[in-house]
Amino acid sequence: MKIKVCGMRDPENIAGIASGGPDFMGFIFYPKSKRFTGFDAQTEILNAFPEKIQKVGVFVNETPEQIFATSRVWKLDAIQLHGQETPDNCRQIQYSVLPVFKAFSIDESFDFEILKAYQDYCDYFLFDTKGQFPGGTGQKFNWALLEDYQLDVPFFLSGGIGPDDVESIRNFRHPQLFGIDINSGFEISPGLKDIEKVRKFISEIKSDIV
To answer: Does the structure show a pLDDT above 80 at 19?
Structure first.
């Protein structure tokens, strides 16, 4: 089970979270987000960033040119598209040899059939809670809805996951569940995570789930 900690931007906080052993860290490159990292590279973050953790850049309806430019200066390992991007948008990013995470907002009305058009151009899907605006809502959706997901693309479970959800995650089963994405449920303030809570969560998830 992989763990992605999203919405990071503070160098000291990043170092503390990194010591807990996440597999991915997400950096948000969406100016309207409270966790916006900024497009310009921050050497304090990059110089001390552990190589074993993959940097995922999160973009919302951004141009390919800006995504590629940001990817170069931040030395991103993967791109997450969290807006209304089309399958062709995903194809353009994947063609640049960067893995693509495509986020989808899930509620009872979501049609899983639309994912078929994306499956050849995405390395991972990320299933989040549907909200009024792009980005996380801090609320969980009904994970039972994912019984309708029948494709082979592995996915990350996201949306309002917090420290008390270990048991629920342990009891959730799906053949394509690849990882857990956490963010606001572990925050002290936007972009600043509670290091001990994240460490404990990662330890429990990785020890309990194969």
So the answer is: yes
* Of the candidates 11, 22, 2, the residue with the CA atom closest to the CA atom of residue 186: 22
pLDDT digits (tens, 9 = 90+) for 117-136: 999 999 999 999 976 555 55
Instruction: Give the 3-state secondary structure of residue 165.
Output: helix
With CA atoms as reference, report the closest residue to 17 among 185, 180, 202. Answer: 202
Ordered by where they begin, the domains of the chain are 2-208 (3.20.20.70)
Rounded to 5°, the CA angle 194-161-111 comes to 150
Please state, in angstroms and rounded to a whole number, the distance separating the CA atoms of residues 56 and 172: 25
What residues are annotated to the active site?
6, 128
Instruction: Please tell me the distance from the alpha carbon of residue 12 to that of residue 173, in angstroms, as a whole number.
Output: 35
- pTM exceeding the 0.85 threshold for the entire prediction: yes
